[in-house]
Amino acid sequence: MKDIMMMRFIIIKVRMDQHRASLCAKLTDTELASGLSVKEKAWVAGVTSTAALETTSTTMSYFLYAMSCDANIQRRAHMELDRVVGRSRIPTISDMDSLPYIRAITQEVLRWNPPLPIIAPRRASEITTYQLKLRLFTIYMDDWYEGHFIPKNAALMLNIWSMNRDKDVYGPNVDEFQPERFLESFDISLNTGEFTLKAEYQNNDGHNAYGFGRSNTCTTF
């Protein structure tokens, strides 16, 4: 992993010498990277350049697999797009509230097969942090959560896969791909395709695929 990050850093430095600027290149600028070691610069550049690549491609693969397994879901999604967007343009973010079935599919893909089933360990820490130059410091301390004692520096393994398959939340058929679980009303008729997203999911992802804490699972979908 160290070699991968260092190689990415070297590639970015070469591009800078060729005057091919990028976000990662800016992160290696002397002024912005003040106080960081070469290894830290390599990790910043490497993580930034790889964020959302494999997680997004993995999610897209699960989406395509789910669509290939159920032609009816494809038809309903296509019908909603034709009704709301038409065929003369592509959807935009302003269409989101008018595409409840597409949103339900997106939520179900991330619930059904999250790109990272178990995310990187977390540690109990004090909320208050302070910053010196570009370094962010956190004070680790003991904590309590719903009657459970969490000693400082204890590693917390977060099983997103299991959380997204909670039968008390999603029903008994948690292993099946069913966007309808996020819909308030579902018209099975392929001739109308009128759907309504459940109220609790209007402003709620309905899954834990994005992770927790300051460092999330970078997914664009």
TrEMBL record:
Keywords: Heme, Iron, Membrane, Metal-binding, Monooxygenase, Oxidoreductase, Transmembrane, Transmembrane helix
Keyword Transmembrane helix attached: yes
Lipid bilayer topology: Single-pass membrane protein
Gene Ontology terms, MF aspect: heme binding; iron ion binding; monooxygenase activity; oxidoreductase activity, acting on paired donors, with incorporation or reduction of molecular oxygen
Gene Ontology terms: cellular component: membrane
Record flagged with keyword Glycosyltransferase: no
SUPFAM superfamilies linked: Cytochrome P450 (SSF48264)
Co-factor(s): heme
Entry-linked Gene3D superfamilies: Cytochrome P450 (1.10.630.10)
Compartments, as annotated in UniProt: Membrane
InterPro entries, sorted: Cyt_P450, Cyt_P450_sf, Cytochrome_P450_fung
Family the entry assigns: Belongs to the cytochrome P450 family.
Record-linked PANTHER family: CYTOCHROME P450 MONOOXYGENASE ALNH-RELATED, P450, PUTATIVE (EUROFUNG)-RELATED-RELATED
Name this polypeptide is given: Cytochrome P450
The organism of origin for this protein: Collybiopsis confluens
